[in-house]
C-alpha cells in the first residue's frame, strides 16, 4: 500500500447545483456568475437577457434554480416564470426572483406565477449563495416581511378575487392546519415549533404534508393557497 486514499466513486460525489442567471444587464450577470461559480457546489450553466431566453435556457439546461429578474425586455420575469411553471418538463426547476426591493407590487403575482422566493439585488454574496441553496433543496425563500407584503397585496385584491374554497383543505389534519396558519403569518419552523411545542423537523414534516395535499410547489405557494382557499382568513386592515 502506498498510503494513497482512493477517490470516492462518481455516484458518491454530489452533483453541483446548476443555476441559470436571467437579467437584462450584462454587468449584473457577470457579477452574479463570479459569485456563484466561486461557491462550493454551485455552477452557472446558462445566462439569459430576456424572458424568452430564460425559458429557452431552462428548457435546454434543466437547471436546479433560475435567478430571474422581473424587469426584462420582450418577456418579463413574471411571464417567463408562468411559462416555466406551466411546462411539466420543468417541474424540478425552481425560480428565485431578483428584486430591487424585497417586497414590491410584483410579490403576489410572482408567487402565483410559481416563484419559490425573492432576493434583493443588494443582498450580500453569502446571502445569495444561501438563498440559491435554500430554493434548490425545495424550501421557499419567503421571509416574514415578504409574507406580510403578500398578505397586504392579497387584501388589495380580495374584492376582485374572492376566496375559492377547495375540497383539498378537508384532507388536512388539525395539526397541519395549525402549521399552515402560522406559516402564513410569516413564522419560521423554529418559531412555529416553539409555539406548538414541537420539534422544527416535525413542523417541517407537517408543512411538507400540507404542501403535498394542497398541490403547493413549496412554502411560498402554500402561503398563497392558504389565503386563496380561505384556509386562513386574511387579517382586516386596522381602521
Helix tally equals 10
Domain module count: 2
Tertiary shape:
globular
Terminal CA distance: 79 Å
Strand order of the largest sheet: 2-1-3-4-5
Poorly predicted spans: none
Please summarize the sheet with the most strands: 5 strands, parallel
CATH class of the largest domain: Alpha Beta
In short:
46% of the residues lie in helices and 12% in strands.
How would you describe this protein?
With 239 residues, this protein is α/β, with parallel strands linked by helices. The protein has 2 domains: 15-141, Rossmann fold; 151-228, Winged helix-like DNA-binding domain superfamily/Winged helix DNA-binding domain (Arc Repressor Mutant, subunit A, Orthogonal Bundle), CATH 1.10.10. The chain contains 10 helices and 5 strands. The protein has a 5-stranded parallel β-sheet with strand order 2-1-3-4-5, with helices on both faces. Strand 3, helix 3 (77-86) and strand 4 form a beta-alpha-beta unit. It is globular and about 50 Å long.
List the helices and strands and how they pair.
Elements: E1 17-22, H1 26-38, E2 42-48, H2 51-61, E3 65-69, H3 77-86, E4 94-99, H4 107-113, E5 117-120, H5 125-136, H6 144-157, H7 174-184, H8 189-196, H9 200-214, H10 219-228
Parallel strand pairs: 1-2, 1-3, 3-4, 4-5
Can you tag this structure with a few keywords?
Arc Repressor Mutant, subunit A; alpha/beta; Rossmann fold; 10 helices; 239 residues; 46% helix; 5-stranded parallel β-sheet
Amino acid at each position: 500500500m502506498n498510503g494513497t486514499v482512493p477517490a470516492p466513486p462518481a455516484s458518491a460525489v454530489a452533483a453541483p447545483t446548476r443555476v441559470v442567471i436571467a437579467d437584462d444587464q450584462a454587468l449584473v450577470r457577470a457579477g452574479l456568475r463570479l459569485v456563484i461559480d466561486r461557491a462550493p457546489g454551485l455552477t452557472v450553466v446558462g445566462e439569459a437577457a430576456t424572458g424568452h431566453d430564460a425559458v429557452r435556457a431552462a428548457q435546454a439546461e434543466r437547471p436546479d434554480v433560475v435567478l430571474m429578474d422581473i424587469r426584462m425586455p420582450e418577456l418579463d420575469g413574471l411571464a417567463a416564470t408562468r411559462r416555466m411553471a406551466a411546462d411539466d418538463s420543468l417541474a424540478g426547476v425552481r425560480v428565485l426572483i431578483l428584486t430591487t426591493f424585497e417586497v414590491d407590487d410584483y410579490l403576489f403575482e410572482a408567487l402565483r406565477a410559481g416563484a419559490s422566493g425573492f432576493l434583493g439585488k443588494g443582498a450580500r454574496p453569502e446571502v445569495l449563495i444561501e438563498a440559491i441553496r435554500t430554493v434548490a433543496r425545495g424550501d421557499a425563500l419567503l421571509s416574514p416581511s415578504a409574507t406580510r407584503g403578500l398578505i397586504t397585496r392579497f387584501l388589495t385584491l380580495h374584492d376582485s378575487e374572492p376566496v375559492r374554497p377547495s375540497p383539498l383543505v378537508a384532507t388536512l389534519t388539525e395539526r397541519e392546519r395549525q402549521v399552515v396558519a402560522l406559516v402564513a403569518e410569516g413564522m419560521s419552523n423554529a418559531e412555529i415549533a416553539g409555539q406548538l411545542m414541537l420539534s422544527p423537523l416535525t413542523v417541517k414534516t407537517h408543512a411538507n404534508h400540507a404542501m403535498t395535499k394542497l398541490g403547493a410547489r413549496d412554502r411560498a405557494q402554500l402561503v398563497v393557497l392558504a389565503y386563496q382557499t380561505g384556509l386562513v382568513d386574511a387579517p382586516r386592515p386596522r381602521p
